[in-house]
């Protein structure tokens, strides 16, 4: 088994896709317009628009799109949405340059550059996407 994709489920699809395109400085590959976009880094980080499926379930004959098990699972009330259960971690060679570039975009909340040295020097900062997910951008030097 291998990791194929990690994806973010969102109700703010256009805003989230735009955020990641600006942060990554690349366009995502569109697999289903307004539903699924992938960014390939060796493994994929994808954005899934849950509202797309919700609209289809409400409005169409579903036999070609979803089976009954998918619809049943889709409609389960999972309570309040929780973010920050995982952190997406990205490496850069020039942390200050990346920090300043993202800060100039003025698209998100950002931490200051932090430093930890447990087994080796580790510098990083966090940014937060429109859904509140944490993205950690790190380097081995400031």
CATH structural fold name of the largest domain:
Signal recognition particle alu RNA binding heterodimer, srp9/1
Helix-strand pattern? EHEEEHHEHEEE
Q: Can you tell me the number of structural domains?
A: 2
Strands across the major sheet, in which order? Answer: 1-4-3-2
The CATH class of the largest domain, by name, is Alpha Beta
> Can you name the CATH architecture of the largest domain?
2-Layer Sandwich
Task: Tell me the overall shape.
Answer: elongated
Reported for the largest beta sheet, the result is: 4 strands, mixed
Q: How many runs of DSSP E, i.e. beta strands?
A: 8
Question: Could you please describe the fold and organization of this structure?
Answer:
This protein has 2 domains: 5-74, 2-Layer Sandwich (Signal recognition particle alu RNA binding heterodimer, srp9/1), CATH 3.30.720; 87-139, 2,3-Dihydroxybiphenyl 1,2-Dioxygenase, domain 1 (Roll). It is α/β, with parallel strands linked by helices. The strands form 2 sheets. It has a 4-stranded mixed β-sheet. It has helices spanning 13-24, 50-59, 68-74, 95-105; strands at 5-10, 29-32, 36-40, 44-49, 87-91, 114-117, 121-128, 134-139. The mean pLDDT is 89. A hairpin with a 3-residue loop joins strand 6 and strand 7.
């Amino acid at each position: 088994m291998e990791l194929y994709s990690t994806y973010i489920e969102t109700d703010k699809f256009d805003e989230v896709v735009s955020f990641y395109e600006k942060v990554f400085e690349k366009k995502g590959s569109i697999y289903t317009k307004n539903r699924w976009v992938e960014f390939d880094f060796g493994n994929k980080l994808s954005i899934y628009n849950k509202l797309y499926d919700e609209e289809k379930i409400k409005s169409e004959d579903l036999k070609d799109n979803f089976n009954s098990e998918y619809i049943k699972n889709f409609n389960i009330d999972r309570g309040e949405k929780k973010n920050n259960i995982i952190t997406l971690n990205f490496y850069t060679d020039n942390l200050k340059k990346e920090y300043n570039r993202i800060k100039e975009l003025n698209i998100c909340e950002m931490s200051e550059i932090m430093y930890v040295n447990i087994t080796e020097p580790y510098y990083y900062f966090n940014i937060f996407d429109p859904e509140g997910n944490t993205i950690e951008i790190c380097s081995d030097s400031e």
